[in-house]
Amino acid sequence: MISIMSDWKHIFESAPSLMVEAGAYMFRREDPVRAMYFVRSGAIALERPMADGAALTLHLASEGMALAEASLFTEFYHCDAVARAPSTIATLPRPSFLAALRNLPEAALSFIEAQSKEVQGQRARIEILRLRLVSDKLDAWMDLYGEPAKGDWVKVAEAIGVSQPALYRELAKRRR
Fold first, then answer.
1. 3-state DSSP assignment of residue 154
2. Sequence ranges of the domains in the chain
3. CB 24 within 8 A of CB 45
4. In this structure, which topology does domain 4-104 adopt according to CATH?
5. Whole-prediction pTM value?
6. Packing angle between helix 153-160 and helix 105-130, nearest 10 degrees?
7. What residues have CB less than 8 Å from 99, skipping those under 6 apart?
8. Which pLDDT tens digit goes with each residue over 40-87?
9. CA-to-CA distance for 103 and 126, rounded, in angstroms?
10. Which helix (H) or strand (E) holds 102?
11. Is the distance from CB of 7 to CB of 39 less than 8 angstroms?
């Protein structure tokens, strides 16, 4: 079990909070990277605008998750960060966060472990998104995660890259 002092999240305990309203942008693609973020509450989507005007959701960070950690070692953000819900975000200057990781090796290992789990989840999502049929996507998701909590089917639709009506049609077929 990881002690509280070795958990990377404690680095943000005294960090100031930023309140972000639903629909507001925290940063835009090509803005300079100046901070590391931790989602205290709410949800922030990392999106890349597509040529047809739609947004490709690259990641959805929710309570207890790091936000835009992949940009920690880049000069500019590669996507937009938009709040999907009213959110409270802890923010630390990038140099402060990196210094904390250097000075707290157990916290650094905890951060690496958390990010490796995130990478595994993203790889699984990519494989699910590559499937063509809604039924195959849903089967793959259910094999990995089981049935979602009541009210979370909307999140499943987004995770597997299908519309809510398409998912509900597939669920209705399965109930027959």
1. helix
2. 4-104, 131-175
3. no
4. Jelly Rolls (2.60.120)
5. 0.79
6. 80
7. none
8. 999 999 999 888 988 888 888 999 999 999 999 999 999 999 999 999
9. 35
10. helix 94-103
11. no
